[in-house]
Amino acid sequence: MQLSKRETQLIELFIKHGMTLTGQELAEFANVSTKTIYRTIKKINEASDQGEIIVAEVGKGFRLDYDKYLSESVQKRQDETSQGPRERRNAILLALLFKSPRKVLIQELFSPYYLSDTVISSDLTRIADFLSEYRLKLVKKDQRIAVEGNEKAIRKVVNGLLSTNTLWDADFTTQKHKISAYDINFITSLLEFIENQLGSGIVYPYNMNIFSHIYILIKRVREGEIREDQPFEQLDEEEKKLINRYHELYRLSEKVISKMNDYLNLLLPESETFYLFQYLISSRIEHDQIKLAPKSQTALNMTDYFSKRMSELMGIQIDQQPNQQDLYEHVEPMLYRLKNEIIVKNDLLGDIKLEYAEIFNQVQQVSQEVQEVFQVNPISEDEIGFLTLYFVKYKEMIDAKKRVLIMCSSGVGTSELLKVKVRKAFPELEIVDVLSSRQYQKRAEQYQNIDLILTTVHLNTELQVPSILVNSMFTKQDEKRVKQMLGEIE
Fold first, then answer.
1. Does residue 249 sit in the same domain as residue 339?
2. Does the structure show a pLDDT above 70 at 165?
3. Of 53, 81, 109, the domain-final residue
4. Chain segment 348-400, per-residue pLDDT in tens
5. Which end of the chain is more exposed for a tag (fewer CB within 10 A), N or C?
6. Does the residue 63 lie in any domain?
7. Quick check: 490 pLDDT over 80?
8. 376: in domain
9. Which of residues 81, 116, 133 is at a domain's end?
10. 236 near 220, Cβ under 8 Å?
């Protein structure tokens, strides 16, 4: 099912505002007439292979059948990855890159697609233009072609193509390349070995990134020209410092490459250890058993910038130390990915942009500032999507906290003591303010978003907010009563 921009926007309205909406509500959200809404719904249902996706319900309006919509979306993605000029060119380019620098017959590459000479010529021109952006050349001699250039650039393009245009499925099938069961088991065992050495798991999507990297290496060995005597470009001073800083991760890379040498029955070039090392340090990994060097000052400064600017834009305090540490663990490897142009595909990007549009736009704005302030490469939408999820989490953590007001007769002394005791008993609560009952009566309109008031005095005025009378010493009995009250206002 191919949807127009307007039809896609209509579907998004249901997802954003509710699965059942009236025609009038849809018209107001979309800023169009109800007639346009009815016509658009009719077109969507006519284009569906699953039957009516948007169902009219008497007395309610229209309901999006979410199960049918998901089925259509999955089928659409499958169709998109299996056909089309772009997918064809990517499949051909992957075949060339895996075999590089060996030349391949043009007829052999294009025969499955039954194309005219004009289309083949156009495809080759587009492929050559694409490769030139990575300083790679498409070389043609007689009826054969090959990709020539730096091995690191070749690996980067392959990884980008796999990450951007394809998803590994349950059988680890990608494009027209199928991995053998032996290779799947071997790569999986390597990932398990890495995790055991680290003492923790490698979370998605970094695990798939490392899987892809190892798969590409095996494929290049089997079909390409990876040799034992392959020249290795000497490391610069910065790269040597990086190895010293993460020397235990580099040793782990050496162990993994040693296992690959045994599996492939050859001695891989020294460069492969460094390539794998790059992927490890560009991944977010909790290092329980591997001790790392002191934190990167640039990553700390960037983390601080992100958290403070997002606090300003979101209007909430999210730059506390626990959040800073959490965000830093993502920013440090992201900084390395930006510098080395390592791609991590965000498969949830579309959903993130739709569901958390405001926060995504705010993170995008701050990311542009970060690029200028810290002089880093452009931060991709995939990376912005990952960052957005952190700030969504912090917001939800703050929103989930119960906001409590503490008051007593004076607002001094006893209420401060009460604050300490309440914070100790209920660290999950947000204590908004400590004040006297008189101060509260004067400024009651300032405290509209309070969930509970703890007071040591009887309040004469009727409150809109639940309140509970407690002892200024906050006894165990008070603690029990507050816990019960919190349970009632969940």
1. no
2. no
3. 81
4. 888 888 888 899 999 999 999 999 999 999 999 999 999 999 999 888 777 66
5. C
6. yes
7. no
8. yes
9. 81
10. no
* Mean pLDDT, all residues of the chain: 83
Number of structural domains, the chain?
Answer: 5
Strands (DSSP E) along 112-253, which ranges? 137-141, 144-148, 173-174, 177-178
Inside any domain, residue 150: yes
Judgement on whether residues 304 and 394 belong to the same structural domain of the protein = yes
Query: At residue 349, what is the residue type?
Result: L
What does the CA dihedral 289, 294, 297, 303 come to, rounded to 10 degrees?
Answer: 30
Q: Would strands 173-174 and 137-141 be described as parallel, antiparallel, or unpaired?
A: unpaired
Both structure tokens of 255: 């162990």
* Residues 445 and 364 placed together within one structural domain of the fold: no
Report strand pairing: 403-408 vs 430-436.
Answer: parallel
Please check whether residue 381 lies inside any domain of the structure: yes
CATH code, domain carrying 121: 1.10.10.10
Task: Give me the pLDDT at residue 359, please.
Answer: 94
Please give the span between the terminal C-alpha atoms of the chain, in angstroms, as a whole number: 43
Euclidean distance between CA atoms 432 and 447, whole angstroms: 9
Nearest to 145 by CA among 156, 137, 153, 134: 137
Q: Are residues 208 and 301 in the same domain?
A: no
How many Cβ atoms sit within 10 Å of the Cβ of residue 217?
22
Digit-coded pLDDT (tens) for 62-85: 998 887 887 776 555 545 444 578
- Its domain, for residue 307, covers 297-399
pTM reported for the whole predicted model: 0.62
H-helix segments, 20-65: 23-30, 34-47
